[in-house]
Amino acid sequence: MPNTQAASRFLVELGRNGRLIVAARALRTFGYGCTSVLLAELLAQDGDDPWQTGLLLSLASAGSVVASLTLGLFADRWGRRRTLIACGCLMAVAGVAFALSESYPILLAAAFIGTISPSTNDNTPFSGVEQSILAQTCDPRRHTTVFTCYNVTAMAAGALGALAAAALALQPWVTAADAAFALYALLAVCTVLLFWRLSPEAEAPPSPRHRQGRHRVRVPGPVRRLAALFALDAFSGGLAVQSILAWWFAQRYGATSAQLGLVFFAANLLPALAQLTAPFLASRRGLLAAMLLPHLAANLLLAAIPFAPTLASAVTLLLLRQTLSKIDVPARQAFTAAIVPPAHRTTAASMTSVARSVAVSVSPLAATTLFTGALVILGAPLLIGAALGIGYDITLWRAYRTAPMADG
Length: 408
What we know:
The chain is mainly α and 408 residues long. It is built from 18 helices and no strands.
């Protein structure tokens, strides 16, 4: 009963806009969890080579970069609700294109405009605007808890999406990938309906600069430094995104689509549960330690996966790595909101998302290039990703261990 009352009180504190944002991201991430497991299979069925898969994933991330950059600079002026609705519509168009078309140029165009994601990570135009709305509408002392809810529900939905991919692989009527992208389009329509219900309180308050008609946009120095560091982290993680891992497990160990769906169901569910510890860890050790300690351990486990002799041992290492790999996310989002002034939060959230998307747009192509010949056995992208991730942990700690926070 006390836990139920606490949950009810938290939902009330989250507010209507917060609940709509959390629900929209959960639906979106369910779609990513389902399609990312089957995306490489869809392209292979269409006769595309591995390098074409890498190019499509890179172009999808590049499209997210362009959209995130535009929204980061102008969403507050154009209207947050309006821009989120527009992005949801483009996501629906992309889902229809992937479900119905086998033309590689059409798929490239759809991937560029439609936030197709190779994993359940949400480095998309939505995230920067959504995080700004959450930071604006919630008590700063509750930011880590709010962002934990935002991420945990999304990760649980992503896990269910991977499980749905396994179920779609068993039905006999249409290919699993086509069914997954038809579902993706339907989920996009549902997110549009949720964004439509956002209230005016979700919009940015007018700043003096906007009231006076001056529209020059400046990205503050702290935001640029954070963006550079987060880009390094995203590039390292992008070398081992879900689509790449699914393809590597199939090539190295002969894993089937049904097996991969179950593996990535667990690989998304475990970090969702583990992320519930983020507020406790942040309150005891601080935001920076909550970001870096589990992240470092996850990178060490990632480096061990290529040395696993069997599918079972590799899956065990992967699940341990995944359990720790996302604990840092709500602390990182709260850290970003705390390290910059409130007026710069939309810019900070979007620009760091842009930086991560830029890095992720390059890493799938690099990963598929490295998965050739003997490098498939060595798992080179996983080893390089782990090394870069450890470098990020060390650099961020040295740069911000004494930084003051704007919020509690």
